[in-house]
Design brief:
The complex is a heterotrimer of chains A (224), B (222) and C (44).
Chain A (H helix, E strand, L loop, with lengths): L1 H20 L2 H20 L6 H19 L2 H9 L2 H6 L4 H31 L8 H25 L5 H29 L6 H28 L1
Helix pairs in contact in A: 1-6, 2-3, 2-6, 3-6, 3-8, 4-7, 6-7, 6-9, 7-8, 7-9, 8-9
Chain B lengths: L2 H24 L10 H5 L2 H24 L2 H32 L8 H22 L3 H15 L1 H12 L8 E2 L2 E2 L3 H42 L1
Antiparallel strand pairs in B: 1-2
Chain C lengths: L1 H42 L1
Classes of the chains: A mainly alpha (224), B mainly alpha (222), C mainly alpha (44).
Chain lengths: 224, 222, 44
């Protein structure tokens, strides 16, 4: 068990290290997010309501994920290293967890730059000393990384990978996005009918369910 | 045609005629909704049948990963199509009903939104399956996808309990909240649409599996 | 007006099912023509 976790960390570390060799990829994700912000600003006519602006944060991260999570497994197919992973003596779920950590790291780096930028441009502010804010962003990003890695693995056998990835990513990520938008809106304009704690519990429940289901059935994606 | 199939079709036809009679003549107008209660009998049953269809797809997905039998995957694929058909009917009749009672066909009510998400999610699954060429890989990865996508169904069903909604909650833990005539009509509508689902599923399965056989034959021939 | 709305709902439900049956029928026809062509090719 512990050795498998170590293997997962090794996979994550390997991917993060190879990411440092091509830092333009993370920068490309950040630029994509910036373009999305610009497009939304055009659509909403400049000045944006804080309520809508805070909800937009997750919409932008969702769209950036559509673009950034796709290579998690697809790059392995391109370089032909997937075979090595699938015959290595590591359980399949450890491969999956390693990839989730890598996706979380990648999106986390983008978010560190993206979040202040969005707050500045859309004119709203999160309380930077609220531990709840960090909990939401950590759980939310982890959830999206879990869904994105699975979606990337599912896209591997498809004939038209670039078109299909968003379609695989959308159904699984949407429930998380709805919860995350409610949560951040609650942080900015105050909670609505449902308390933020309950929403966060639902989100954590979704994360645990997604990770468990994916980790259990991931072996079927590697064996074929 | 085998006798048991004729019996099934006959029963469905009789109950179907009864269903049409009960929907349009037997059920009295409701106190607040008036005549538009008749839309209700043609809206709820397809909705629940759509959930059933997607549930069948999930079960087929799990069974396929367990038994690796391609016939199970063909059945699951047929159920996706039927689920999409009944979700489309639900969305369109729901829009008519919303137009009749709330005055607008679409107002982003949580129930409407999540049903639309459901439709998109399974349409994505259908497109995804079409984009994989290798038959066995399609079955394998399609099964995984159907398992991962199922939380969308659960979310759609739970949404009215999580968010405040305009959508009436008819089925509560204490039972059906309606009069006896309406309850009976509701029950008959459920049975009719479910029987229709079973018949359509069988037909789709047969057509799809003969298509599979044909493809396989052409592969071995060339 | 209301009669028309109610009628539309019936059209959606039964029309939807009929359209699906029609789709199955078309698919079956296509399978049949392909099979016929294959048989013909085999005979030649």
């Amino acid at each position: 068990m512990t050795s498998s976790f170590k293997a997962a960390l090794v996979i994550a570390a390997k991917d993060i290290r190879s990411q440092f060799r091509k830092p333009f990829e993370v920068f490309a994700m950040f630029l994509f997010a910036l373009i999305a912000i610009l497009a939304f600003a055009f659509g909403m006519g400049g000045v944006v309501d804080p309520e809508i602006g805070s909800a937009m944060v997750w919409v932008i991260i969702f769209l950036t994920g559509m673009f950034g999570f796709a290579p998690i497994f697809l790059s392995e197919v391109e370089t032909g290293t997937l075979r090595g992973i699938s015959i290595a003596p590591i359980p399949a779920w450890a491969v999956y967890i390693g990839k989730v950590i890598y996706g979380f790291f990648m999106m986390g780096v983008v978010e560190i730059f993206l979040l202040p930028m969005t707050m500045l441009l859309f004119g709203f502010a999160f309380d930077p000393f609220d531990p709840f804010l960090y909990a939401i962003f950590v759980v939310g990003t982890l959830d999206l990384a879990a869904v994105g890695s699975m979606a990337s693995a599912l896209t591997m056998p498809s004939e038209s990978k670039a078109t299909i990835f968003p379609l695989v990513y959308f159904p699984t990520a949407t429930s998380a996005i709805i919860l995350l938008i409610e949560l951040t809106r609650g942080l900015v304009v105050g909670p609505g009918l449902i308390t933020l704690g309950f929403l966060l519990q639902l989100l954590i429940g979704h994360l645990i369910a997604m990770i468990t289901i994916s980790a259990v059935i991931f072996q079927y994606a590697l064996t074929s | 045609m085998r006798p048991h199939r004729i019996v099934l079709y006959l029963i469905t036809a009789i109950i179907g005629v009864l269903y049409i009679y009960m929907t349009w003549i037997y059920a009295p107008p409701e106190a607040t909704l008036g005549e538009s209660i008749r839309i209700f009998f043609q809206h709820v049953a397809p909705a629940l049948t759509a959930y059933t269809a997607f549930g069948v797809t999930l079960i087929c997905g799990i069974l396929y990963l367990w038994r690796q039998d391609i016939r199970i995957d063909v059945l699951g694929g047929a159920s996706i199509k039927l689920g999409l058909l009944f979700t489309t009917i639900t969305l369109l009749t729901g829009m008519q009903w919303a137009d009749a009672t709330w005055g607008v066909p679409w107002n982003w009510d949580p129930r409407e939104t999540t049903t639309l998400i459901l439709w998109i999610a399974y349409a994505c699954l259908w497109v995804y399956r079409a984009s994989v060429n290798d038959r066995e890989v399609k079955a394998q990865f399609g099964s995984i996808f159907s398992i991962v996508a199922f939380p969308a169904v659960v979310l759609s069903y739970l949404s009215i309990h999580i968010w405040n909604t305009l959508h009436p909650i008819v089925i509560t833990p204490t039972g059906l909240q309606m009069g006896i005539e309406h309850g009976l009509t509701m029950m008959v509508s459920m049975i009719t649409i479910l029987l229709l689902y079973v018949i359509l599923l069988e037909l789709t399965y047969r057509v799809d599996s003969s298509e599979e056989m044909l493809l396989e034959y052409r592969m071995t021939r060339s | 007006m209301q009669q028309l709305e109610l009628f539309t709902v019936a059209i959606i439900l039964w029309g939807g099912i009929l359209v699906f049956l029609f789709y199955l029928f078309i698919k079956m026809m296509r399978i049949q023509t392909t099979v016929e062509r294959l048989v013909q090719q085999d005979e030649e």
